[in-house]
Design a protein that fits this description.
mainly alpha, single chain, 3 helices, 60 residues
Length: 60
């Protein structure tokens, strides 16, 4: 990798280290596991498969 790209990587990593982590740790979310029933999950999956990839050009 060329040296100028190596420096870009180093700078990027340094910025990442300075970034504060936001959100809830996964460990605290485990009590929600299994709380959605299988039928609802199937409906969600179907909706995602059906609607993802479609673009509404008038939305923007």
């Amino acid at each position: 990798m060329p040296q100028h790209l190596q420096w870009q990587v180093v700078e990027f990593v340094q910025r990442l280290k300075e970034t504060q982590i936001q959100g809830t740790p996964g460990q605290q979310l485990l009590h929600f596991a299994g709380s959605i029933n299988a039928e609802d999950l199937q409906l969600m999956c179907q909706a995602i498969k059906q609607d993802c990839g479609q673009i509404d050009v008038d939305q923007w």
